[in-house]
Design brief:
With 378 residues, the protein is of the alpha+beta class. It has 13 helices and 14 strands.
């Protein structure tokens, strides 16, 4: 048999793409586009919200808190006036409010104006990130979460120089909406909003540039969007490589997960997807965590004044591999300590390893650690 022609190879590639899920296909297409060209447009997230994010799943109650080290975010659901009565809005959650806030931030920075006309710019934003701007369901969900954001009260807390600081902010100071009546039900359609001066000034000082093509590729996952924003802010600020244990990532990103292993599995999947659309990110998995190295940010214009290491990591999607305890080690632990949680011990072991020289044999070191760990549990 002779060699295949380019046409046959291209046809085979198209055939493989047909078998992919829409999410996987979207990520692959965005990754190829990002590798070839710089972003034509830029979107932005506030630096603080790159560290501690909004709820990722629907949350019971009217208040949500997320804490990480010396920082905390407190989100309180609010109400909007519909022309006749006050209507309670839900807590914003999931990918849509993140995208909505990024859209608001981007419009404010592009126009250098805290006043934003939403109706005119919404469709443009959806097109920029590759989502269907004519799809009624997508538009409706986007609108619902934007209204939830408009009513949200946001409090930020952090500790610095032995001082506890609280900032109470309502990002959106004023919200104007068109009143429509369908089937005798009053509804609001976002028309215009004004950011509070405090939030607007803070945004101008701490905005993190993001690639809209990456946002569109990750628009299915709040966790992936949060990981992308975090890495976009963190990697180009590093002076040297730093190891971050998975337990620290769970503390930062995994509040909604009660099971450590479930979080780790989803976090690694989200990180793998992020690396596909952030090819300059230098990350690799090490024992018990990830090694983050100084990297170019997604938008190259943000590298001014930063120290960037020249080494690159090839095939970034291959750097996130399964790691941790082997089945044999897990069975050994459970045989010796049948009443103790092996993954709780592993979590403490990974935290204990932070800043130390990595063991030559992770399994043996873990079992040695487990002996002392178990004494405190019995």
């Amino acid at each position: 048999m002779g060699r295949k022609t380019r046409t046959e190879i291209a046809a085979k590639k198209d055939e493989r793409l047909k078998d992919l899920t829409p999410i996987h296909r979207r990520i692959i297409e965005a990754a190829a586009d990002i590798q070839m060209d710089e972003a034509a447009e830029i979107e932005y997230q506030h630096g603080i919200l790159c560290q501690v994010g909004l709820p990722r799943k629907k949350t019971e109650g009217r208040v949500f808190e997320r804490n990480f080290k010396n920082a905390s975010i407190r989100v309180k659901a609010g109400e909007l006036w519909d022309g006749g009565k006050w209507v309670e809005q839900p807590l914003p959650y999931g990918p849509k409010p993140r995208l909505a806030l990024i859209h608001i931030n981007g419009e404010a920075i592009r126009t250098q104006n805290p006043q934003i006309e939403i109706g005119r710019s919404c469709a443009d934003f959806l097109r920029r990130i590759g989502l269907p701007d004519q799809d009624g369901r997508t538009y409706g969900l986007f609108k619902k979460q934007m209204m939830a954001l408009a009513a949200t009260e946001l409090s930020l807390g952090f500790t610095t120089h032995n001082e506890a600081v609280t900032i109470n902010a309502r990002p959106i100071k004023e919200f104007r909406a068109w009143i429509s009546n369908n089937d005798h039900q009053t509804s609001l359609w976002p028309g215009e909003l004004t950011l509070s001066r405090d939030y607007f000034d803070s945004l101008l000082a701490h905005a993190v540039p993001l690639d809209p093509r990456a946002l569109g590729a990750l628009s299915h996952s709040a966790l992936a969007l949060d990981v992308y924003a975090f890495l976009a802010r963190r990697l180009h600020e590093l002076e040297k490589a730093v190891r971050v244990p998975f337990v620290s990532f769970k503390e930062q990103f995994g509040q909604e997960y009660s099971n450590y292993q479930n979080f780790k599995k989803e976090f690694l999947l989200a990180t793998k997807q992020v690396l596909a659309v952030y090819p300059d990110a230098k990350i690799k998995q090490v024992t018990g965590g990830l090694l983050l190295s100084p990297s170019h940010p997604p938008i190259k214009t943000a590298t001014k004044g930063r120290r960037i290491v020249k080494e690159t990591i090839k095939e970034p999607m291959a750097t996130i591999l399964a790691a941790g305890l082997t089945e044999r080690t897990t069975e050994q632990f459970r045989g010796i300590y049948p009443r103790l949680d092996v993954y709780a011990c592993q979590s403490d072991f990974d935290a204990w390893l932070t800043g130390k020289e990595q063991p030559k044999n992770y399994q043996t070191a873990f079992l040695g650690f487990a002996k002392k760990w178990a004494l405190g549990k019995t």
